[in-house]
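hey so i finally got around to running both of the ones u sent me last week. sorry it took forever, my laptop kept dying halfway thru and i had to restart like 3 times lol. anyway pasting them below in the order u listed, first the sequence line then the structure token line for each. didnt double check formatting much so if smth looks off just lmk and ill redo it

first one:
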Amino acid sequence: MSEPIISIRDVSKTYKSGLQALKPINLEINKGEIFALLGPNGAGKTTLINMTCGIVNLSTGTITADGLDIVRDYKEARKRIGLVPQELHTDAFERVIDTVTFSRGLFGFAPNPPYIEKVLRDLSLWEKRNDKIMTLSGGMKRRVMIAKALSHEPKILFLDEPSAGVDVELRRDMWEMVRGLRADGVTIILTTHYIEEAEEMADRVGVINKGELILVEEKSVLMRKLGKKQLTLELQSPLTETPQINGYDLALASEGRQLVYSFDAQADDTGIASLLKQLAERGVDFKDLHTEQSSLEDIFVSLVHR
């Protein structure tokens, strides 16, 4: 296994007021993966990112980025990291190309106009390069933030709630761009509460709730372990009570017009054939049936409630 590009060991955060924003967290993020940190608002996602980027001080523990301690080797470590924060703060009176070029210089990198042009083109900003930032739409400003974060060719990119307030088209563009960056070897960590974003993009998912990392799992394993399938039968005539059939998890929906059976999608025998036979014997007829797999959203909600 390759050395993790980010290593977070026993890291916690307690503010002077006594508020514990993060309980001790241990997490390793592998080079070249897309890691999604999921959690409700206020769960501690942004705090963890800001600590890794050296913006918020650690109360305990150590964080290394690309082998560099983010406290001891702050300057070198920070060069490896790009951050797209949640809030849009940009230099309103600057031209797009100037602010992105300036960002590169801030990290001590020599000018590289062809690279800056590539970044702006990838983000559909090249046509707008001479526009002042204040004249851009919210979605375009978000793109400028991403361009600034990429200006110094970071190996690690943090996207904090990248889809907040962003239209569907930009979201798709962004996902496309993130995949392209990963193909170039960039490691991407995104925080989100848009579950479809994690479902679409991530290799692994971490769930954080009330400052505690409650689970880290490969997305496919998580979907398999916690994913249920549901069979919904559209009944010929409504039922007033749920049929009691041994070994079956059944529930009525839509005012008795639907019978829903939840089962483990991975089981060798789903029990559907036997269920349909037993229902027929009891005179329960249906006119239609369909199955659906639970989404990452259902899994996330059940985890956080648990």
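and the second one:
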Amino acid sequence: MGLFDRFKKGLTKTREKIVQGFRAVLPFGQPIDENILNSLEDTMLAADMGPAVVTALINDVRTAWQKGRLSETQDILPHLRERVIERWPEQDRQLARAETKPTVVLVTGVNGSGKTTSIAKLAKHLTDQGEKVMVAACDTYRAAAVEQLTIWAERIGVPIIKQAQGSDPGAVAYDACESALAKDIDVLIVDTAGRLHTQDHLMRELAKIQRVIDKRIPGAPHEVLLVLDATIGQNAVNQARIYCEHVSISGIFLAKLDGSAKGGVVIGIRDQLGVPVKFVGLGETPDDIEPFDPREFASALFAE
């Protein structure tokens, strides 16, 4: 199955919602007018694309219509698809890399967002590319979190660094850095405690873990991924905005995209946060991960 097909399958719920909405407001062969543009705007907002993005896209369609580049309703979707693709610069979607290994990827997010499963997917994805991967269980508050990550690590075949429940997360992170250096690891993925963006002490602890890692491996973490749950739509953007105030987030892993009718939030994230979506989760298994590709995403999103 090609990337377009995987995106298309994963975006089924979102696409059905969007395409049904578009069909209702863009009957084939109708001349474009302001009423059609207003109805289109409402449909796009309902797809969780975010108010700022929708306003910009509608204004773009309006300008193209007024200049005679678009005339009928069937001209709108191809135009929108290209405008959506243009909103993502190429360079910022790659996973950041250290000049000398290991590359350290710190992963954070709210409990229930799909963080542990997303780490497993990322570890599997990198292992499949021939990289030596290690994971660190720095969510020491919940025994279940360490157990779950251990099960995934064993299943995928990657080493895991962990300590007893209640251990200092910074100490686990330090141990993991030492071990990654000693074992010539390519990528160290560090799990952190799921935290609400309102829990100041946990947000401060996240900054402390970053400092500990940087002390042992200068310049690390090289990537800070925030896992967001696609099923909560614009609320995910609000969560991310507050995270970005405390921690320098460099990329988004959008989980549960296949279970959501709110996949349009991908477009809003880039615009409202200035943080690129780097990976998406499209299913339950460790293989259900894809690096984010805006052209394939937009083509799948607007596919009939």
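quick thing i noticed on the 2nd:
The two ends are 18 Å apart (CA to CA).
anyway thats it, ttyl
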